[in-house]
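Why do we care about 3D structure at all? Because function follows from shape, and shape follows, mostly, from sequence. That is the central idea of this module. The next example makes it concrete: a single protein chain, its amino acid sequence, and then its structure expressed as tokens.
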Amino acid sequence: MKKTLLSLLLVAAASFAATIPDSAKVGHFYAGCQAYSFRLYTVFEAIDKTAQAGGKTIEFYPGQKFDDTAKWDHNATPEMIEKVKKHLTEKGLAAVGYGVVKLGKDAASDRKVFEFCKTMGIGVVVSEPDVAGMDGIEALVKEFDIKMAIHNHPKRPLDRAYLFWDPNYVLGLVKDRDPRLGACADIGHWVRSGLDPVECIKILKGRIFDSHMKDLTEFGNPKAHDLPFGQGKSNVAGVLAEYHAQGYPGPLHCEYEHNWETSVPEITQCLEFVKNWKPAK
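And the structure:
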């Protein structure tokens, strides 16, 4: 029975990926950038830089600069949305995720997030939700057929109420709910928390819908910074192997939070690592 349930969860987890075009694959995975990697730039520049680095997918975040007068988020006008869609098409990118965005406190705001994602063709909302609002979030997931993935930041020693860093806690929030509720696995923040990302991924098997990919200079240090994949302590090769073994095809989003103004060459190395990775024979 457990094997049957897990098989159903894996099919559900892959169902959104089936809507991502094959052209969005980087090697074995749908892959690109979290736009926060380019937080110093406009959303259009984030699209440009993702494409320049070799990415094929992008995950937007709320609050990025749109132009000198507006921000890019779920309150965007139809005209703004059309401009961004046009630029995505021109650059050959698929927008597949949106977050981290707050959910669970304001039903009207939550609905606007899901409406925005539906209009954009985005299949995953990434959040660190108010858990008291999970019933309402689940209802929106069912109504819009859009996944909600719970993101993890690092463990907070001075804030013991913050629990999203723990994959067992996240699993407990979603395991008895609709299979479209799951996790956005931020492997770098697990490393900062002193957790083995491969073991965390195993815990969340069948419930991972997105992954923020980081390779960090140190294990267990909240101040560790990004390096090109394969050069740090996150065991990115092991993470990719586990994702492949689970049948998870992505999306994977490089979130590079170092050398903000000159990061494109390093992000290019990250995506080349994904492109060149091959499963063991």
